[in-house]
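Notes from hallway chat w/ T.B., transcribed later so I don't forget. T.B. wanted the structure written out for a chain they're using in a teaching module, and asked if we could keep both sequence and structure tokens in one place. Agreed to drop them here.
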Amino acid sequence: MKDTFEHQFSEYKNQIPEYDSLIKNIFSMEKELERQQYLAYDYKAQIDKALEETDGCKIVIVDFHAEATAEKRSMGYYLDGRVTALLGTHTHVQTADAQILPEGTAYITDVGMCGESGGVLGMDAECVVSRMRSRLPVKFAPSKGDCEADGVVFTFDTSSRRVTAVERVKI
């Protein structure tokens, strides 16, 4: 099954007025970039090319799945004012830095995760520790903790494409 933002949100197409013009080009930078930690190459041309596909869109959300905080932060500043929001993902730990950058882009280094809060990233801690200690493959089992859902809510002005408010959510 195709797993893209376009596919994930297609079920809402009939529920959201102006879906095609408003949300059509929500995209993940994963499609355009083959990243490595700290982006050790010139990525600007690839990003600029990806952004050309969003011309005319009122909302552009970038899901930037990267390891290092520094590369997410620098990407936020590089895209500030050019996208509606840059939402960092990967670590499964929500960061406390949700903010509006100087040119109006919403930013958070990591939105967090949805899943069981006990254990390690939703997996049973004993399994994960065993794998780390032995360096051998171990079948992971879900943790038995309460479920949590992390995220970010932001308000934006469609005419200016600037974010006016951003707030972390943890349920």
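Follow-up for T.B.: The CA atoms of residues 3 and 9 lie 10 Å apart. Might be a good example for the class.
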